[in-house]
Amino acid sequence: MNIGIIGAGTMGVGIAQVAATAGCKVVLFDANTPQIDKALTGLEKTLQKLSEKGKISQEKAAEIRTNIVKGEALQDLKDSDLVIEAIIENKEIKTKVFTELETYVSDSCVISSNTSSISITSLGAELKKPERFIGIHFFNPAPLMPLVEIIPSLVTEKTLAEKMYILMKDWGKIPVIAKDIPGFIVNRIARPYYGEALRIVEENIASPEQVDEAMKTLGNFKMGPFELMDLIGVDVNFAVTTTVYKDYFYDPKYKPSLLQQRMSEAKLHGRKTGKGFYDYSEGAEKPAASKDDALYQQIFLRIISMLINEAVEAKRLGIANDEDIELAMQKGVNYPKGLLDWGKEIGYAKISETLQNLYGEYQEERYRQSPLLRKL
Q1: Is 137 a catalytic residue?
Q2: SS3 category, 175
Q3: 89 and 117 in contact (C-beta within 8 Å)?
Q4: Is 321 a catalytic residue?
Q5: What secondary structure letter does DSSP report for 255?
Q6: 144-196, pLDDT tens digit by residue?
Q7: pTM
Q8: How far is 48 from 53, CA to CA, in rounded Å?
Q9: Active site residue: 67, 80, 85, 137, which one?
Q10: Any catalytic annotation for residue 264?
């Protein structure tokens, strides 16, 4: 297949690497031409390291690099069978690119977006052939993270999602099909992992290091919420939360954190700026968590109950099937277990009781239960 990639940032070049590894011919384009050269230079270094570590042969590394060529203009994607856009999360800019792209590609070319939170239906609405448009959402870093969310719009041609599902499997990925709702599967269900952690710290119930330690020791999560926000970028995480909140017509469940907003404004974005919830400057030591078993249990049960409730609600709304909900959270954000199974293990009655107690204490809609939760 001939694949076009728009955007030569981390995601774009990562997706290009995945497609090229699967034997596809890739044209990589970015409006900022020097960025393409920078991305391809970085890719060459990555492939060299993989070869040195014995992960791929020198021949395979050379083949991958040869399969990717630089696009000088958007028109260079004209022979593509599939185009994947991976540029800035801005609906107007994306839409403008898609409408221009459509004038160059064939009628059979599939046009897609790697957006993590913008409505697929709205992005494809300006196209002359919106039925050829679909969401194909990779997770960062694309070559390493196995999950890909495939999101058909309300008007996407009926068989296209299945075709993209098969293609992603051919590319060595684990695809899941999701409804076109804000946040799709992963970014919707995962919101409480950050939101409830931030609420706990804002209320001085616990410190960031205590919350992280509780989720790692009791939940076996690889990273705590604050470590993960620092890795993702506090600003990026805040932007996704804000988008989901607005797109759900300001549902209190997804209300952003004032603390996170202030940190974004102060450019305390985490690892990339050297300081976020933790200090990453040279010689800085991470503060030790003050251990408190009872507090840790309270933190864990509060956050996991919110997560399980979101997974149950996604099941109720048919956002994805049970298997895809479980797969998405394990393969997209490295959760140690599927949340629906975790609910059975803890006991749905216990989850329901925890949420009821939180609602009783706060009288806030954010703690409302999925109607399905009490029936499980």
Answers
A1: yes
A2: strand
A3: yes
A4: no
A5: P
A6: 999 999 999 999 999 999 999 999 999 999 999 999 999 999 999 999 999 99
A7: 0.92
A8: 9
A9: 137
A10: no
